[in-house]
Design a protein that fits this description.
Elements lengths: L8 E3 L6 E2 L11 E5 H12 L4 H8 L3 H21 L2 E5 L8 E5 L5 E4 L16 E6 L1
Parallel strand pairs: 3-4
Antiparallel strand pairs: 1-6, 2-4, 5-6, 5-7
Helix pairs in contact: 1-2, 1-3, 2-3
The structure holds zinc ion.
């Protein structure tokens, strides 16, 4: 069995794939898609208590762009809470470095210097991964 190529970088995904409301009648049918950068914006501003300038700098974006992403994230979460919708995290418009893959099982994003056949997810070892971009 050939040795798997060492992965250069792993971006830690959110620790969940989504949130589901409970105590409602039946299943929640629609879901709200929370982009990775929106999750990051909420985390930096409301969990790490960074101000917008600091958070924008960390994410490598301008302050107005950060404010827009943050606002969008808050609206989505408010909508999910109010309308009892599921929240699903999805890969968004984040900066790509090398060849990026998305694991369809655990939604982890990871890079590999050269795309190869049979590459697996470094987080859950799933083979169900998708090439999502190259820099
Ligand atoms: Zn995975």
């Amino acid at each position: 069995m050939p040795r798997r190529k060492r992965l250069r970088k792993v971006v830690a995904p959110p620790k969940f794939q989504g949130y589901k409301p409970y105590g409602i009648n039946g299943e929640s049918k629609e879901s709200v898609e929370l982009l990775y950068e929106e999750y990051e914006a909420i985390k930096l501003a409301d969990y790490d208590f960074l101000n917008h300038s600091e958070a924008a700098k960390l994410m490598g974006i301008s302050r107005p762009t950060f404010a827009r992403i943050y606002e969008s994230a808050r609206r989505k979460i408010a909508k999910a809470l109010t309308e009892a919708k599921e929240i699903v995290t999805v890969f968004g418009d984040i900066e790509l470095d090398g060849s990026w893959f998305l694991c369809k099982d655990c939604h982890a994003k990871f890079t590999c210097p050269t795309p190869t056949e049979g590459i697996g997810c470094p987080m859950c070892k799933s083979q169900d991964v998708q090439l999502i971009g190259e820099s």
